[in-house]
């Protein structure tokens, strides 16, 4: 099982003749990891996620949409809208290969998926004691004619997900969020709804952001801003990171990328990523899931060796994509910290040993 990965730019601290400034973008990445079949169980998921909005071609889809509408009655007065919105979160059956597993049989799930993993994420909630780490596969329409290119046994797939369920063991997991500059002190969410933050520290969130930007240099308006979430005290790096998509200074609302915003009482900080900051990666031994960016990511390593024109990183597995990493870490409680979130920060890396 696997997927096509985004390409890499390579640089080594000591010179290798094959690496020059002119061919930094010419390297195709190939990583192979081998697992004991008694420890890791491969699976294929075709569970549907959220459908992408259709833009244009109204007449093409109108007939089908009208037919769907005819099958539904308007809800009665006094309907519980919370229940209506929750219907899309109903439990999904697990992929067939995983249905025999008990909750305590699974310590970690790794997967590569398309842009709609919501159905799979919902199904994997059955494994309440497992951490889940995924990567939205590299976009390949100009390489293979497929939106994504996934592999499972002898199949080549354009959608769905492939992955591994790993039995409990002593894996070490490190999540890195690089190139972030804090621009506020610690704050608390006062009010939020959906993916909107309405109030922070009982103040206008958009004004807080604009005031913070005003204290920075002249290039700050071109940078990307994030809301970092802390669940275990104010550490150097946040536990979760949400891209701030837009703000409304008059109403005060901040819109975050994703479906949900942090709830009231959550400790947060606003971070900045400079537009000119380049993404570099010094990969660690083990499995590395990396979110790259449109202009790629530069791999820097002293451990790189050359053999017959092939550059090697021993004991290092890399898969790169520009479409984001999905994380749901088990923190010892089945009631907290398990909801998946997606990092689109360039250079964000999940390392598993």
Number of helices: 4
Please give the order of strands in the largest beta sheet.
3-8-4-5-23-24
Mean pLDDT: 83
Fraction in helix: 10-25%
The secondary structure category is: mainly beta
Number of strands: 25
Reported for the largest beta sheet, the result is: 6 strands, mixed
Q: Are there runs of 5+ residues with pLDDT below 50, and where? A: 58-72
Bulk shape? globular
What does this structure look like?
10% of the residues lie in helices and 32% in strands. It contains four helices and 25 strands. The chain has helices spanning 58-70, 81-86, 118-124, 205-214, and strands spanning 2-3, 9-11, 40-45, 108-113, 131-136, 150-152, 155-157, 161-166, 173-176, 181-182, 187-193, 196-200, 224-230, 240-247, 254-256, 267-273, 280-281, 286-291, 298-300, 305-307, 310-312, 316-321, 325-328, 341-343, 349-352. The chain has a six-stranded mixed beta sheet with strand order 3-8-4-5-23-24, with no helix packed on it. A six-stranded antiparallel beta barrel has the order 11-12-15-14-13-16. The chain has a four-stranded mixed beta sheet with strand order 9-25-18-22, with no helix packed on it. The radius of gyration is 22 Å and the shape is globular.
Throw out a few tags for this protein:
mainly beta; 6-stranded mixed β-sheet; 6-stranded antiparallel barrel; 32% strand; globular
